[in-house]
Amino acid sequence: MGYKPPLEDIDFTLNHVLDLAAVAKLNGFQHADPETVRGVLEEAGRFFSEVIAPLNTIGDKEGSRLQPDGTVRTPEGFRAAYAKFVEAGWGGVHVDERWGGGGLPYTVGVVVQEMFKSANMAFSLCPLLTQAAIEALSQHGSEEQQANYLEKLVSGQWSGTMCLTEPQAGSDVGALTTRAEPQGDGTYRLFGQKIFITWGEHDLTENIVHLVLARTPGASPGTKGISLFLVPKFIPDPQGEPGERNDLRVVSIEHKMGIHASPTCVLSFGDDGKGALGYLIGEEQSGMRYMFTMMNTARIGVGIEGLSISEAAYQKALEFARVRVQGRPVGDSEDAEIIEHPDVRRMLLTMRAYKEALRGLLYYNAYQLDLERHAETEEERQRAGELVALFTPISKAWSTDVGVEMASIGIQVHGGMGFIEETGAAQFYRDIRIAPIYEGTNGIQAIDLVSRKLGMRQGQVITELLEEIQRTAADCGPDLAEVAAPLLGALKAARQATQHLLAVNDPNDALAGAAPYLRMLGLLLGGWMHAKSALAAAQKPDNDFMRGRLGLARFYNTQILPMAEAMLPAVTAPQTQLAKSFL
Fold first, then answer.
1. Rounded to whole angstroms, how far apart are CA atoms 561 and 218?
2. In the predicted model, is pLDDT for residue 539 greater than 90?
3. Any residues with CB less than 8 A from the CB of 222 and at least 6 apart, and which?
């Protein structure tokens, strides 16, 4: 059995943990009622399970390969599958209809991303970066740039990349040295090298649109002096079709631990001497602000990878546990499938409980983004925007950390067979291990959370969120005390940790506790999502699926959520406990 889209769990989260019907009432989304969305997602699930998932192992074994002529050849079957992806329009599901998109909520687009990534994470990275480029151009590009590029990017006819990193400038983007020389006609010529460019060269699309960070002459040092440029692989001719080859080339592609089908490229701009022709997006020295438009949606997308791989690893582990006969359960006289052993069930339940916590968290983040952009009042939009800002570093970091852990548990369920490549369990671990590094490492996400997001409105944003979680716990009542009590315990610890970080005098003390604090909040929000699930499931106790969701909520909140309280000493410990002399 291959990947099977978890449509019942998805539908439950959209309509019971969240309120998809409320999103459908927002201006522009009236066509996105739950029944219509259900039909769209059923078709998406069929497509990704039947067309994309079978290529996952092939892509891992073959990889994308650099050819002598400087082109990159993708694995067998990828080109044909991508053509079907473009024909079906899955890349633009949540993009504005004026650019040829489906006009559905971002919440629905995130679900489509989840299924694509579960089916084939390496393949999914190409459309992910394209969607990030669409986001940047639609918000910051000129009318001419939008007219020339957006429809082709939305359709998937062309793809997009993000070009930030250089050999000496990784997390410290401000250290980049790629330069952009103005030509006097509104265009620029770029010279420099970028590394780790995901899908920087390939044979799936007829053109690739690179969004490149570079410095103009006399620009300020650091991130303040960075500008953003649109640099196409082929310069469009007057008809908008790919014309002259631009002065950029692939130096090499990386040999990686995982995601072998995704070509991670070293790109060189200006090797022929004339420089790569580029077009300024927006204003000079505003590039980092524009790039964050791409990075924030990309960070949610990377967080989805943690959920997607957790889902795929869980499905494979569950399938194996149901057929692998090994050992006799206590009291039985014959060997049985390993799912009969309590510890194996514990591992499988841990995987399922975590992935449903992630699904609730990530869909909620996307839901708030829809509200930020489409809610009727400015107050509603502002409140939603604050939650998007608060949730995004948690969605990215906690989800990807959990994704790595769940892939590892999946290997453990397989036992020795999990360490053998033929079972496919190891590929999930190798593929997802990059996600905690992508789009700002998880340590940087924790710093962002504590340094920038925690103090929004003098700490009122996080305070109001914690109050909302308390109301959910109160709604649980005595019938769901097993769910509510651990939630209240984690909530108490989170309040103490938050007060400590808001009051701390030495910023280094706050930074020392940032990563454990982010994990604490992730665990807490997961418990909140499970409490919402329990409240919905308790309304239909005679339904097998609902009983299962209720049991899953009890499992998470009683066996996993208490770890949030245990993070408190790590959050409040002074940075002197991390002294370099101890290393």
1. 52
2. yes
3. 174
DSSP-assigned beta bridge partners for residue 249: 268
Catalytic residue among 76, 439, 464, 482: 439
Q: How long is the chain?
A: 583
In the structure, what pLDDT confidence band is assigned to residue 184 with cuts at 50, 70 and 90? very high
Residue 293 has pLDDT above 80, yes or no: no
- Residue 219 DSSP class: P
Average pLDDT over residues 540-549: 94
CATH topology (fold) of 159-285: Butyryl-CoA Dehydrogenase, subunit A; domain 2 (2.40.110)
Q: 535 pLDDT exceeds 90?
A: yes
Distances (CA, A) of 170 to 197, 330, 387: 12, 53, 28
Q: How far is CA 194 from CA 38, 213, 299, 302, in A?
A: 41, 9, 20, 21
Q: Which among 471, 498, 439, 473 is positioned nearest to 553, based on CA atoms?
A: 473
- pLDDT tens figures, 51-88: 999 999 999 999 999 999 999 999 999 999 999 999 99
H or E stretch at 430: helix 425-432
Model confidence at 116, in pLDDT bands (50, 70, 90)? very high
List, in order, residues 6 or more apart from 167 with CB less than 8 Å away. Answer: 193, 195
Q: Do 29 and 105 contact (CB within 8 A), yes or no?
A: yes
Q: Which residues contact 499 (CB under 8 A, 6 or more apart)?
A: none
Among this protein's residues, is 439 annotated catalytic? yes
* CATH code for the structural domain at 7-155: 1.10.540.10
C-alpha dist (Å) from residue 350 to 305, 332, 407: 18, 25, 12
Q: Rounded to a whole number, what is the distance in angstroms from the first to the last CA of the chain?
A: 47
Single-letter code of the amino acid located at 166 = E
Pairing of β 158-163 and β 207-215: parallel
Task: Name the DSSP letter for residue 17.
Answer: I
Closest among 197, 109, 229 to 438, alpha carbons compared: 197
How does DSSP assign 466-528, residue by residue? HHHHHHHHHHHTGGGHHHHHHHHHHHHHHHHHHHHHHH-SSHHHHHHTHHHHHHHHHHHHHHH
pTM of the model: 0.97
Dihedral of alpha carbons 141, 142, 148, 151, sign: positive
Domain positions in the chain? 7-155, 159-285, 441-575
Eight-state DSSP code of residue 439: T
547 burial (CB, 10 Å; 0-12 / 13-18 / 19+) is middle
Classify 285 as helix, strand or coil. Answer: coil
Sort strands 207-215 and 187-198 into parallel, antiparallel or unpaired: unpaired
Tell me the average pLDDT of the chain. 96
pLDDT tens figures, 201-249:
999 999 999 999 999 999 999 999 999 999 999 999 999 999 999 999 9
Least Cα distance to 64 among 191, 200, 227 occurs for 200
